[in-house]
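Fold this complex.
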Amino acid sequence: MKLKKFFALCMATVMAFSVAACGGSSDSSSDSSSDSSGAESGAAGGGGADVGDVDLDDLTIAYLNVTDSLAPWPQYIKEDFQAICDDNGWTLIGYDGQGDVNTQTDEVASVISDGEADLAVLFAVSSDSGVQYVQDLTDAGIPVITFGSDVSEDGRSNVKCYVGVDQELLVDLSAEYAIENEPEGAKYMVLSGFEGQYDYIARSAETTKVFDEAGFEMLGDINYCGASRSEAADFATTLLNQYGEDMNFIFCHSDEFALGAMQAVEEAGLTGKVHIYSMETFQETLPYLEDGTISSSVTMTSQAVADKLGEVIPKVMSGESVDYDQSIDQVLVTSDNASEYDGTLQY
Amino acid sequence: MKQAEKLPVKEDSKVVKFFKRNNIILILILVYAAAALLASPGLLGGKKNTFFTVSNTYDLLTLVGVYGILAMGLTFVFIVGGIDLSIGYQVAFCAAIFAVMARSGVNVILAMVITLVCGCAVGYLNGTIVTRIGIPPLIGTLAVMTALKGIVYIICPDSLSVGSATLAGNTLSAVYKLGGAITLPVILIVILTVVFTIFLKYTVTGSNFYITGGNFEAGMLSGINPNRLSRIAYTLGGFCSALCGLLLCFRTNTATYNMGDGIDITAICAIVVGGVKMQGGRGNMAMCIMGVAVIQIITNVMNKLHYSTAVVALVTGIVVILVLILDRFTSGRDVLDD
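Structure:
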């Protein structure tokens, strides 16, 4: 009998819930909120959906991030961009892709079905699947700006502009500094991030190309350390034990790995003999850059990406023409200028 | 003594009996109602309800379709008392193989058939490792998962676009949306649910799956070959993983190295929530699909309300535990026997 009452109560609750939920629920249907009728033609550098008649003071932005938590860079871009949105009175609807293409695909579908966004800014988990995302968003009348990592070339005609890092330049700045400072035929090892992640693949390809052209010899293969400093230290220790002073330098695809490499070099008693070149300057590495323990790094600040987004969005949404490529400034940091960055970096 | 004889025997009503046996239906109704309430304008300060819309319902059906197909494969494995931890990477492996063939200009239909055969082969390999070599399924399928992960990283180090591959003149993503709002996964899951249900309920092999999972020894003594049936179940699991991989590949025209990350756990949770017993011998496709629906509704509504990933994971975990507790109470004797 008690169970009967329980079920009856459940059913009554369901009815109540449904009535409550239906009340005032206006079905959005699959149409986007950005009304393309009478829209100004997208005059921006890229193509994509026409920009509708949008009030810039009441802008709703779907922010499709590659991850909110697995890596600091996208995490801080979001924080910095949130502050810019708050200042401008824009509404930011955040989506955490969790580094997973399936999750991000679901999120794109959600942005379209919700129909709330006037604009989508996309840091795609995969540059290839990003092509489909921008296509779907454009078909739904939502203009798209990519940031952090661009979509593959096939999809760029649907993108207003790309804001982010020039991965090749990032590698080139630090690699050229290494080429200037290392002897001919120098031997080096590479510490990279996640195997399979677009950014690190691009950095690995450029590293190999630049140093091959310089006649340098890579010891072993690219070592993928995920996001782990200790794994970087382990890889470096192994190769330092094997090659010792025969190794001239360690080339790191992030300061996270440079800090691990630094520890391994120190433990091997080779500080000053085996040099470390890096990128993605951290606040934590600045003292080591100042004293030369780490030879170089390259800035790639989240604030710069967020600022650039804040700068181009009003232009794009008012139909103004902008260049497709909106790369942020990337600067080589060495002992000469490291002190200038002290206190300016988020992490 | 006389008094005791007069005590009326408590008989559960038909409704109660039904819900005791199928509490996933009750759970599904409650979860959907709770989701609708949470997303209601009343609680959101007048904001638009983006959960209770036609377009979101179609999205939900698509999600249930994609992940439901994967979960159905695993349901076969569960029914025979096994487990397959490699399904996530089977999905990624099959998607990668398909993408490689499609971008190389292999006929898409042929590529699909080869992919499905590859999925079945991996499933059969799992079944063989478990039944012929005698390695516990948890360890054996974990090893296969690790090997598949390595292969996927080699084939597909970042992501592989299927390029300009078309099927009957349509791009693959267009094929995925061929039915408009009713997408290909929804159509497929309806067909597969019917086919698999008939297979489990009305064929000797299907019925013997339950005997294999329920009592392996009795199965042996009654003359069926439980090892062979287990291999068939794992092979069907591989087939469903391959189908899921194809659908995910069609959806974005791309295969990625981490395509299978996490979906294995989602499928396992969904099946457990659906009431399919991990110990084997109990479960059906309807339970499985409803379990998937429960998990997808929770994830969907939490995403609509813009909760962080951490909160979504926490809530999903709590719901799984609550469902298991409810299951313990409502189907008391069965569960205790397990």
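Chain A has a mean pLDDT of 85.
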